[in-house]
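Researcher: Go.
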Amino acid sequence: MKTARLFLCLAAFAVTVPEAPAKAEELVRFESVPVKLSPFRIRKARELGEILPQPQGTPLLGYLSRPPGDGPFPAVVVMHGCDGLRASVRELWPKRLVSWGYVVLVVDSFTSRNLADTCPSRVPDRVFDAYGALDFLAQSSFVDIGRVALMGFAAGGTATLDATKIEGYEQLVERKFKAAIAYYPACDADRGDATVPSLILTGERDNWSRPERCQKRLARLSDDSPPIELDIYKGTYHGFDAPEFAVGKRVLGHIEKYNPDAAGKSIRSVYAFLRRYLGR
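Model: Structure:
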């Protein structure tokens, strides 16, 4: 039986989401996972007598928040969108996740690369930023490294799906994520099966991250794929969970607009999903 599931969200979930004070965040430094040299490149270097330099990771910044206590706690690695660390990703979501009992590491992929905005283009190495964050969390005694989810928004959501697709970058790294959450990602209809249970949340009117491409991907999953849940919120646009878009704005011809009803439903959906696959 096919394990992928599709939800059209028209009514609120009957889930009570707790809120509690979060522990202060900490600025941390780590590196992305180095991109490994291919066997072909290594073989050619040997044939030519070349000495190849060891792959190096990219220095990164991150913001680490944690619940009170010693743990070990489950954790969530958060990836921002092409517009950088907006307030909802930098502050609201970490406080919310910590109040639910999760350690949170928000990855800043731009500062060390001297980037401000990548919306007209793409930074493919961000997948390795995510796994660098996972390796960093593995060094913390208060993190249960076997229960870490990857969560991304827009371009960060696309990186989240890329990082957890079968026969993708995930096979090049040692540590793995337990689950994945992607807010309004650019779905690839041909991306294939996921490697972990996944939750995709998007807006019906989003013409930047079109929901129909996510639907096409789900329709092509194999019967033994980990479950992918797709929540499509009726009448909503890109950035529907972000209060900073309360007035709404147009970016590169696309509408970004907050929808408090859809935001609340999505928050409850994320809460239930994390409880199901990470516990607390």
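Model: The radius of gyration is 19 Å.
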